[in-house]
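When time allows, look over one protein, given below as sequence and tokens. The question is which stretches look regular and which look disordered:
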Amino acid sequence: MGRRHPLVASASLAVLFVGCLGSGAAHADTVAGTALYVDDAAAGCSDTGPGSAAEPFCQIQPAADAAAAGDTVWITGNGTPYAPVTIRSTGTADAPVRFFAASGSSSSVVVAGKASAVTFSGARYVDMAGIRVRTAGATALAVADSQHITYRVAYAQSTLATTAPLMAVDGSSSDISLTRLHVVLPSGPGFTAAAGARNITLAGDLFEGGGVEAAGTTGIDLAGDTFSTVCGDAVSLTDGTSGSVENVVARADGTTTCSGTGTPAEITVDAASAPQITADHNAVNPLSTGTDYDWAGTAYATAQALGAGTGQGTHDLDQTDLTIPALGLPAEHSPLIDSGDADAPGEQSTDIDGHSRVDDPLVPDTGAGAGHVDRGATEFQDPLTVSGVVMGAGYVGVPVTATARFGNPWSDSLAGFTYTFDFGDGTTVTSTTGSATHTYTQATTSGDIQVVVLVDRADGTRVGGADVWYRVDPAPDLASTVGCGTNPSAPDAATCEYAIDFDPYAITSDQITFGDGSKAVSATALSDTLKHTYPGPGTYTVTQKITDAGGRTVTTTAKATVGAAFVGAGPKRLLDTRNGTGAPKRTVGAGGVVRLKVLGVGGVPASGVTAVALNVTDTGATATSYVTAYPDGTTRPTASNLNFRAGQVDPNLVTVKVGADGYVDLYNAHGTVNLVADLEGYYTTKAVKDTQDMSGLAPVTPTRVLDTRSGTGAPKGAVGPRSTTTVTLPKYTRGGATVGAVLDVTVTGGTSSGYITVACDGPNPPTTSTLDYRAGQTVSNLVIPCAYSGVFHIYNSAGHVQLIADLQAVYTDDLANSGEDPSARVGGPFVGTTPTRFLDTRTGLGAAARPLGANGTLTVKVAGVHGVPAGASAVLVNLTGVAPTANTHLTAYGDGSLPNVSDDNLAAGQTRPVLAVVPVGADGSVRIHNALGSVGVVADLEGYFG
């Protein structure tokens, strides 16, 4: 069974009923006759009084007894039911007696009783509207021997199951109109008409639980009613009843089996009545155990069957056409819409809720008669609704626009609408455009505020309203982020990404300068990526200056380092004064300089190269001396690159800038010496033929990747003569982006003199050496082999020797920037500097003028000085240990804990340089640690990496 509705209703429902009284609801000042008042809550009410507004009756009965033709009784609802009333009033066609619910009541007007609530007995021409009736298992509304009675716009309810009808008309009554009623009962008929009753209209009514029964009634018309029955029997017309059943919707409510009573048809017309009943434009859904129609004693399971058998219901709908929704309420596109007969006897001009008949443009008109009528008690209305209020984020001082949004399936014109916006802070704005703009002056603090829009038509009727709970925050600061990077394949160009933080104001100006004097770029997007090519290597300041419509300005800067990409190109011998390779065949004397052509030689391009990496080796020296490498055509710096004693063979990796003429110079300080130089690679600012060979340096935490003394990275034990050891770097180097590595390689404990060569080639004997050693010697050198996918090889020429390799950095190509090798480190470009000594413990430069003691560490600032910018990832340093008092090693690192690696391995009394790539710590410093004894430390800056 359907839902039940209590009769104690809110004031809003009372107003709804009063507002729907229609033409019969004339007010006291426009209706001839006397206005009588009933208000049981009034302090001065009296059932013997005059029934005036000042002294109303307490109950309805004395008012009914006093009412004469043309009088109107206004009854105020106060939440307390009125006592049952019997109305015997007599009016005329021109001056009926009216009983109306008073406007402004705090609740509905209810008349309740255990027996009949309202009885019309011998009454004539009475119109009652908005008066609810309620009973407990008895007839709530009884009409006896009365004519021309109208009862409308009301509720009728029984709270207990009974067999008694909720509303009843006896056989001596006629011209009874029951319209726009909501009838609710748990069992029994909702309405009965006895034999002899005449001219009864039930139209626009909603029956929940019981139907209509008429026996021997002349002229009963059902039009636009909706029935939700329990066990069928929505309409039962018997014993020669005449009339019509049109636009009726009948459905079974629930799944009750009805086994005790059987399942009557939803519409029953017996044989005596069938010739005098017209039925059409109805919609029927019976229980699965029931049937649609019982006509003249024959059951018909469908409307089609009824039409074929009787000629009735030819426009009816049944369960094969639709499933009728609860309470018969149609939804858009329902077959119930615009399919009724507008000329059906008794059909009302408005539906149960007082809504006018409307044409649904989305549903074809399939009804009959003049007009558009839906089947059932409810007319589907224009679904135009005010669906919401749309506003952007709210900020103090920033104008915000509120816009009304509609649900408008029928595409109604919105012309002439007026919009009233209440912004929740005391400001109300009226608009005809559907939008209004407001500027809040204060932020919300204790919760959101309610913004409301009310929309009215041009005639003043309300379309609807909507609201939104809204927050107003202080305007956020204007800010942006800028970051720049480079790709190895285009090392002279910076790719800068910027993003402006959310700004409630519009951006009016966005200028970006790149720090090289070039013209500013006007940016238009809130975020973008810009590429800029610089005239030369270095670190530049990129500046973004933004102004918004609020008059605010912010400047954001970022550093862009461009320089040279590294291309591995060796090892390849470019110089050997012993045999005349690259220079005349002769030793280099004291103060002598070897000019070595490097551009266009050994695979080095003829242009675009800023520096070369050479492994320089002394041999056959006649005196303790040193070698300085520098660009040809420039002043020789004071720094040294290779220190050696007479008779030694010492290598050192050197990165030296190339002179404008394509040459580099090698200066020997003392004695005579033969010099050997092997090309390891070069740095270029121009793209090479195979850009995949171009790479940038990415410092890593110094890590020991090979130590044959302990079995790290290779089998434990010294390697033998003419052997090749394959070394695999950590997992993050094994993708496609890694093309080279920077390692400090050490040999120790050799059983004879020999050399090793570090390269990416396999077991083939090399033609060059990386590091020469003598029996028993511990010596190291920085190497930069190619290491595709993290693999390189070390060849040992003679004897047995222990190998150690410490990873300092890797070289990666564009794949590291693209994300195709997500584990790879992203490398930066190289910017060569004029060789500059920034540390010398012998003179007090950069540190105290004393040797570095055992387990001692020097911290030396490099970022922001000596041309190294803040944010540099690493520096290239020629690190020299001078005259240690014991065999020791130096370790250079950025910050954090001391790594288990070595950069410069020194014998007692030895002076030896080594090239080192040293990460710059978070504080902009590098650290140099001495293991044993005391030692002088000298460091010369060769360049930095972005």
In short: Residues 704 and 806 are 4 Å apart (CA to CA). Residues 1-31 have pLDDT under 50 and may be disordered. The first strand starts at residue 35 and ends at 38. The longest helix spans residues 11-19.
